[in-house]
C-alpha cells in the first residue's frame, strides 16, 4: 500500500487549520492535523518543502518506521514545527491503516477501555455574574467538568475570558475560542500577578458556594507564575478541591515543580507546549505532575503520545489531552481514539468548533451526556471537504502577548 499523493491543505473557516491528506495507490486516504496556532505557515513549509517529497513511494503500513525516519533523518530534532509535521503524517497513516482494516482506529490501539470520555468545557467571565451564567450554559450543554477563568479587577484583557473585546477582524468571535486575533500584529494585553493571586481564590470560593462541592473544577495559570507564586496559588485553592491547576509555571524549568509540590496538594497538569517524551522524563519520573496535557497534534502523533502516556501510567499519571479549537476536528478525533483505548485516561479538553469548521470537516465523533466518543466508522471518522475548505483562505493571525504595568514583557 504505497503513498502516491500528499497534499497540504490550509483553510480558515473559523480559524486557520493545516491538514495533511495522504492518498495511497489503491485509493485510501488519511488525514492528519498539523495546525500550530499563530505559526501555521512554518509547518506548511516544513511539510511541503521537506516532508512530502520523502513520503511519496513509501509503504503506508510502516507507521513506526516512517515516524523514526522523519524524526531521526532530519538530524535537527524536536520542536513544535517538526513534531507537528511528524504528527500529521503519523495520524494520517493510522487513519489509512484503520480504514484498510475496516475498523475505527481505537480498535487497532487495543480496543475501548471505557464507554466514553469525560470532557471539560471553558466557563469564563469578567465578573462573577458573567462567570456564573457561563457555568450554567456549559452545564446545560452537558459538561460535567468545567474550567473556571475569571477577569481580574484592574486588568483590561487577560487570557481565557470569552467576552474580551475582539480586534478588527475578530468582532463577535469568542475570545477564548480564538485568541489568535486576525491582523498584521499581535495584540498586547496587561498582567499583574499579585492582583491575580489575590482575586482567584475568592472566585473559586464563590463558584463552590453557588454550584456545590461535586462539580469538577479546573483552572489554567497559563505559565504566568514563578514557582513560589504557583505554590502560593495551589495552596490557597486547596479548600476548593480543584480537579487540576494547569500550567502554573513556565514548564521549561522542570525543577520548579519540585517547589510547587512541596507546598500544595492541588493536582498539577502540565505539557500543552511540550513536544516529546524528553520534555516529560524528569517530571514523570519524579511524579511532579498528575496529568499530561500534550495534544496528539503537537507531540508526534498517536505513535509518540501513546508512548508518553504508557510511561506516565507507570506512575499513576493520567491523560488530560489539549483540545481547544486550534486543534482541528482531525486532531480531536485522534485524541478521542487514543483516549478511549488507553488505561490511564483522565479527562479530555473539548471546545466545540463553529458551524463553518464543521462543514469543512465532516465528523463522526459524538457528544452525548457530557461524554465524547470517536464513533465507529473505519479510520478516524473525519473527512475533509476540499471544495468547502477552498472557500476560506488563510488569514494572518497571532496569539496575544503580555506586558506588566512598567512595560516589561511577561508570559501570556
From TrEMBL:
InterPro entries: D-mannonate_dehydratase-like, DgoD-like, Enolase-like_C_sf, Enolase-like_N, Enolase_C-like, Mandel_Rmase/mucon_lact_enz_CS, Mandelate_racemase_C, Mandelate_racemase_N_dom. Residues 128-267 form the Mandelate racemase/muconate lactonizing enzyme C-terminal domain. It comes from the Bacteria. SUPFAM superfamilies: Enolase C-terminal domain-like (SSF51604), Enolase N-terminal domain-like (SSF54826). It holds the Pfam family MR_MLE_C. GO terms for biological process: amino acid catabolic process; carbohydrate catabolic process. Signal peptide: none annotated. GO terms for molecular function: magnesium ion binding; mannonate dehydratase activity. PANTHER family: D-GALACTONATE DEHYDRATASE-RELATED (PTHR48080), STARVATION-SENSING PROTEIN RSPA (PTHR48080:SF6). This is D-mannonate dehydratase. The lineage of its organism: Bacteria, Bacillati, Actinomycetota, Actinomycetes, Micrococcales.
Amino acid at each position: 500500500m504505497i503513498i502516491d499523493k500528499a497534499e497540504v491543505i490550509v483553510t480558515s473557516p473559523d480559524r486557520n487549520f493545516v491538514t495533511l491528506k495522504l492518498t495511497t495507490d489503491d485509493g485510501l486516504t488519511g488525514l492528519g492535523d498539523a495546525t500550530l496556532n499563530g505559526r501555521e505557515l512554518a509547518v506548511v513549509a516544513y511539510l511541503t518543502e521537506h516532508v512530502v517529497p520523502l513520503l511519496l513511494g513509501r509503504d503506508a503500513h510502516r507507521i513506526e518506521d516512517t515516524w523514526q525516519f522523519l524524526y531521526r533523518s532530519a538530524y535537527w530534532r524536536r520542536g513544535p514545527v517538526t513534531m507537528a509535521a511528524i504528527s500529521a503524517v503519523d495520524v494520517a497513516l493510522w487513519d489509512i491503516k484503520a480504514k484498510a482494516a475496516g475498523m475505527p482506529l481505537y480498535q487497532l490501539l487495543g480496543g475501548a477501555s471505557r464507554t466514553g470520555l469525560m470532557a471539560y468545557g471553558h466557563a469564563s467571565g469578567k465578573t462573577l455574574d458573567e462567570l456564573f451564567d457561563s457555568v450554567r450554559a456549559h452545564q446545560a450543554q452537558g459538561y460535567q467538568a468545567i474550567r473556571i477563568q475569571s477577569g481580574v479587577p484592574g486588568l483590561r484583557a487577560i487570557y481565557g475570558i470569552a467576552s474580551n473585546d475582539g480586534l478588527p477582524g475578530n468582532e463577535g468571535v469568542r475570545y477564548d475560542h480564538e485568541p489568535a486575533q486576525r491582523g498584521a500584529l499581535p495584540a498586547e494585553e496587561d498582567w499583574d500577578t499579585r492582583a491575580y493571586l489575590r482575586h482567584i481564590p475568592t472566585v473559586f470560593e464563590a463558584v463552590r458556594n453557588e454550584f456545590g462541592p461535586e462539580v469538577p473544577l479546573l483552572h489554567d495559570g497559563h505559565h504566568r507564575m514563578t514557582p513560589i507564586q504557583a505554590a502560593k496559588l495551589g495552596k490557597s485553592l486547596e479548600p476548593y478541591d480543584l480537579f487540576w491547576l494547569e500550567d502554573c509555571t513556565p514548564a521549561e524549568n522542570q525543577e520548579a515543580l519540585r517547589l510547587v509540590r512541596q507546598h500544595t496538594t492541588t493536582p498539577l497538569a502540565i505539557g500543552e507546549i511540550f513536544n516529546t517524551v524528553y520534555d516529560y522524563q524528569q517530571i514523570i519520573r519524579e511524579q511532579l505532575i498528575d496529568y499530561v496535557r500534550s495534544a496528539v497534534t503537537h507531540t508526534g502523533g498517536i505513535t509518540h503520545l501513546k508512548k508518553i502516556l504508557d510511561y506516565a501510567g507507570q506512575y499513576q499519571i493520567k491523560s488530560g489531552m489539549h483540545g481547544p479549537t486550534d486543534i482541528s476536528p482531525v486532531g480531536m478525533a485522534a485524541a478521542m481514539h487514543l483516549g478511549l483505548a488507553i488505561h490511564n485516561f483522565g479527562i479530555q479538553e473539548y471546545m466545540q468548533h463553529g458551524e463553518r469548521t464543521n462543514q469543512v470537516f465532516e465528523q463522526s465523533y459524538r457528544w452525548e451526556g457530557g461524554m465524547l466518543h470517536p464513533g465507529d466508522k473505519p479510520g478516524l471518522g473525519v473527512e475533509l471537504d476540499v471544495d468547502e475548505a477552498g472557500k476560506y483562505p488563510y488569514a494572518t493571525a497571532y496569539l496575544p502577548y503580555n506586558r506588566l504595568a512598567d512595560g516589561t514583557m511577561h508570559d501570556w
